[in-house]
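Letters spell out the chain; backbone shape is given numerically. Take this protein:
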Amino acid sequence: MPENPAAYTLEEAFGKYLLQEKNQVLYRYLQRESRIRSQILEQLEAAPKAEAVTARILEVKEEAQLIAAALEEYEG
């Protein structure tokens, strides 16, 4: 994922053609990445709070939002 995923559109992050065609490989990838981001957030939120941990939590949440928006393209 890029440094600031919110700065990218869905097409830039995951590919215009793949999203338009609702590519099943991309769909499975997005589902997997969504699960991974959930696990990472769970672990980070259980970690002792430090500035770096808080910053990483925000980054992972942004990544998760971008992934969720792409999944909505498939499910919506």
In short: DSSP finds four helices and no strands in the chain. The longest helix spans residues 51-75. Residues 47 and 53 are 8 Å apart (CA to CA). The mean pLDDT is 91.
